[in-house]
Amino acid sequence: MSDSKYITLVSYDGFEFVVLREAALISETIRAMLRGAFKEAQTGRCEFGEIRGPVLEKVVEYFHYYHANRDQTDVPDMDIPVDICLELLMAADFLGLDSRPQMRDLS
Amino acid sequence: MASRNRPRPIRRPLINKEAGGFDQCWATLQSAMTDIHNKNASKLSFENLYRASYKITLVKRGEDLFNKVKEFETEWFHNHIIPGVDELVRSNLPSIALIQMSTSSSHERREAGERLLRGIRKIWEDHNTSMNLIADMLMYLERSCAETKQASVYATTIGLFRDHILRYGLKDVEGSDQPFVILDVVIAVVLDLINMDRDGDIVDRNLLRDITGMLEQLYQTDEEKEKEKLYTTIFEPRFIAASEVFYRAECEKLLRESDAGSWLRHTRRRLLEEEERCVTSVSNFTKENITAVVERELALAKMDDFLAMEGSGLKAMVDNDREEDLGILYHLIARIDKSKNTLKTNLQSRVMELGLEIEQTLKNTDFSAPTAAGASGEAEDAVEGVDKPKALSPAAQQTAAAIKWVDDVLKLKGKFDTLLENCFNNDLVIQSAITKSFADFINMFERSSEFVSLFIDDSLKRGLKGKSDEDAEIVLQKAIVLVRYLSDRDLFERYYQKHLGRRLLHGKSEMHIEKELVRRMRAELGNHFTAKFEGMFKDMELSKDLSNNYKDHIRNLGDDDKKSTELAIHVLTTNFWPTDVMGRGVLQDGEGSRADCIFPPSIKRLQESFYKFYCQDRSGRILTWVPSTGSADIKCLFPKVPGKESGPLSKDRRYEFNVSTYGMIVLMLFNNLSSGESLSFEEIQLKTNIPVSDLTKTLTSLSVPPKFRVLAKEPLAKSVKATDKFSFNAHFVSKQIKIRVPVLSSTSKVEGSEERKETERKNDQTRAHVVDAAIVRIMKQRKELTHTQLTTEVISQLFGRFKPEISLIKKRIEDLLAREYLERMEGDAPAYRYLA
């Protein structure tokens, strides 16, 4: 079965976000999720049991922002509202977004 | 109602200290791991498991988790994997027996071996897959591990595999006391299969590759140091050692059973095989090491033995032009040994042997047998019109020898050139080695300079008349090649001058080819060397002009005297021409030189006339006439013999003779005699003042051979003595009108041994002067030099001309010291100072 271009990320409170696969793969965690023999790899659908909707939304926005500007330099920081920044930090840690992505195994 | 300016506190499902606690998370993980090992991962959610390990890590119990995982894996091995492995190994009992000399057939061994390896491979692959999944699952844990610098999960589990499976010792194996470690078994099987592969059996190479791949991914310890891969530390050394044993045995077998040619091909094949093996069966990493082993054991170890083999070794290869073998040999050696010493020395000694053989053959060849096309020289004495093969005179034999020697050497050179091109890839190292050997044996042969000059002489005189340009080109090139090898170039120069002089004066060769050859010599050896030859050419051209101008001059004087003699003259500049041509040759018994020869009056008038003409344009020159090299055309009338009514003698006969100048002088004497009178040898000598040896030769040519018996000799013996009498031979008859009496000095013969000694003596004298000049020149420039430095300088400066002997240089230095050109300097090492 060929991989589709998009995957679905679901927050625990039921919000679903359809994301470009390639964009989401900057997260180590998501990458691991999709390459193994686990359920997520087969369905193309990742459910996060501890991330809220608005937070996941921001994450997805970040994915796309990064992906769009991936070849450019001196990109200005994305705008992050203060009230979700703590949760966003936790989510980022969970998703392995705290280090520069190594584009080695985007499978 | 949180303000938008403050971060919202984190709300998440409470971690129930019990429910969401360590144990629960661990339980999830554990069951997941079991599922993974059972290949049931697809029903698991990665996120769950990841989150479980995440939670554990957050409460700082990551280390516990880590240990639990290790425990789990170890237990899993023991319970589920090891029994399988044990079974696998025991059922393939022959494989264990491998380690102690198997006796089962290779087919059985192979089957069993492959089964075992397949089993191991499957276990490894399964383990690998599972471990990858588990490591992913514990990724969060790992990230925090990385910060605290513990070994990664993956590395640890791999280590577990190594420790519990590979290092598992089988107990209670029949026939041994110690437990066999599976790793050893595996490696032994792999090596055995490789050997079978080498012997030609078909083995599963992919299987081997996978096993060695596995070994490459395992490390000695958990720290996974690069240099400590199991492959490198355990497998590779054993592989190399086993290969050494294998190839050593193979080499012995080859030495016993086959020949050098097969050995070469075999080695080449093995090298390719092993290289290929490094791609298909073992790691590419080993390529250098294993090819080194093959090179060492198969090629190098017994190379000398193989090359020395009768009938197929290097000698045979060279002699029989086995180009393919030599090509393989060359490539092989080029791989192993950059300097190719073995090949070089072998070739060099072979060249020397062959070169010296040529000399031996020469000595043993009997040139006295008549040959149709053989020598130059005396062949001209052969009776014209009748091809009567004569036995060759000793001198002609020698000349033939010279030609043969040169031909043989050239052939040898051609052979090695072909070999160089076809087999040795025009390798410079080999080329220079061969060249050196050629130069060595050519120069060892003491008559090489003379022979080379003779060869050129012969080619130019006989061979090139009428040959096409390309053929001429080939001969010229060959000649130059030989000249290049000679180290005694001044000796060669001397001979060449002599031969060239003769050729030019008697018009025996084509000018443009001569010039071409000299031009090339100049390019090779420098101006200095060819200056004399070029001077000789110039003289010839000037002389032609002079002759023509003189003819015009005479005509213009209106002296239309039918009886005047025509003069064709060659004016030779003294220094350019060889001394014996110039008549300044070996003088015997203090006789007068050629200048004292008495010419007939008509000739004398001619000489004076020419001299006047010559001095018109030039002043201060002295011309000296050299009768020993000239020739003259004489018309001769033999009146009919009275009393004979029929036959040739009843008529008047007019002939035109071409004789040497001496001959002409002698014959003119007889003009003034009345018939019946005769002249004795002594009288002739007094009247002409020709040196005795020359006179003897001349009179012999005019009176002894029936064809040219213009003079009648009493007594009629073959040799001319001082007491003989000569008279005009009225009965002379010849079928031809124009008769050429042979000139005895027009041929270039090989020197007799006294002549040679003489030439060498003169040469040595010249060399002494040259060395003197060099020493003075050097000292003048450098002012002070040590003895060794001076010697080195002299040798290097004179290199292009000849190789001076140390003793010669020493003697010359002492001579110069005596003549006060140099003085000794104080100090430890002998040194000299230049005295102005």
Task: Describe the structure in your own words.
With 107 residues, chain A is an alpha+beta fold. Chain A is built from five helices and three strands. In chain A, helix 4 (53-68) crosses helix 5 (85-94). By secondary structure, chain B is mainly alpha-helical. Chain B has 30 helices and eleven strands. In chain B, the strands form four sheets. Chain B has a three-stranded mixed β-sheet with strand order 3-4-8. A three-stranded antiparallel β-sheet of chain B has the order 5-7-6. In chain B, a hairpin with a 5-residue loop joins strand 10 and strand 11 (831-834). In chain B, helix 10 packs parallel to helix 12. Chain B is elongated, with a radius of gyration of 49 Å. The termini of chain B are far apart. Chain B: GO terms for molecular function: ubiquitin protein ligase binding. Chain B: It comes from Apiosordaria backusii. Chain B: InterPro entries: Cullin, Cullin-like_AB, Cullin_homology, Cullin_homology_sf, Cullin_N, Cullin_neddylation_domain, Cullin_repeat-like_dom_sf, WH-like_DNA-bd_sf.
